[in-house]
Design brief:
globular, 434 Repressor (Amino-terminal Domain), 65% helix, 0% strand
């Protein structure tokens, strides 16, 4: 299950980044480019504190990121 949550977060971050470059988007989120890259690839474990920071910076809810309708 954790792997699918990581993938869902990665897909959401890639979608929200749009045409922005990785460094620009990482700066906006307050994380390093390498962390953002690993998150987008579904390879980065994220603490609850980091997830909360991402949600605030993206102005979204946790339900927006982890939609139950996503394929598992």
């Amino acid at each position: 299950m954790a792997a699918s949550l990581q993938k869902q977060l990665g897909r959401y971050l890639r979608k929200k980044r749009g045409e922005l470059t990785l460094p620009v988007y990482a700066r906006k989120l307050g994380i390093s480019s390498s962390s953002l890259h690993r998150m987008e690839m579904g390879e980065q474990n994220v603490t609850l504190k980091t997830l909360e920071q991402l949600l605030k910076r993206l102005n979204c809810r946790i339900a927006d990121v982890f939609d139950d309708r996503e394929p598992r």
